[in-house]
Amino acid sequence: MGRLFLISLEGKIYSCKHCQAHLAVSDDIVSKAFHCKHGRAYLFNKAVNVTVGIKEERLMITGMHTVSDIFCVGCGSIVGWKYDAAHEKAQKYKEGKIVLERFKLTGPDGSRYWVTHDAHMGGSDADDA
C-alpha cells in the first residue's frame, strides 16, 4: 500500500468525523436543505479527499437520479453521495455536485452532528425545498 496524501483546506472546513480528513469548505455550500437517512445533509459544489463509488439509480424525494456513494480516503467511511445525473430537468443543477451527510462530519467550529429523533431512517433522500 502506498503513502496517503491528503489535501489540506483553509477557511471554514468540514471534516470526516472519524479521521478528521478535510472534505469541503463552507464557501462551496450550495444548499443546507438536503436530507439523508441520518438527518440533514449539505449540497457542495466540490469535495476533496473522497473517492467515488459505483453509479446507481436511486429514487429520491425529488425524483430519479444517477448517484455514486462517496468515501473518505482517510478512513474509508461513506460520507455522502455525488449526483452524476438528474432525470428531471428541474434537478439538473445537482449534476456533478456532492452531498455530505452532517452526521458524518465535524463542522468548522469543531462541532459534531448527531442523528436527530426526526431523522428519516429510509434510504438516502434529497429535498431542496
From TrEMBL:
Regions crossing the membrane: none
Residue stretches making up the Yippee domain: 12-109
Provenance organism: Musa balbisiana
Highest taxon of source: Eukaryota
Claim: Translocase is one of the keywords in the record: no
GO molecular function annotations of the record: metal ion binding
Membership in a protein family: Belongs to the yippee family.
Tagged with keyword Hydrolase: no
Name by which UniProt lists this protein: Protein yippee-like
Keywords: Metal-binding, Zinc
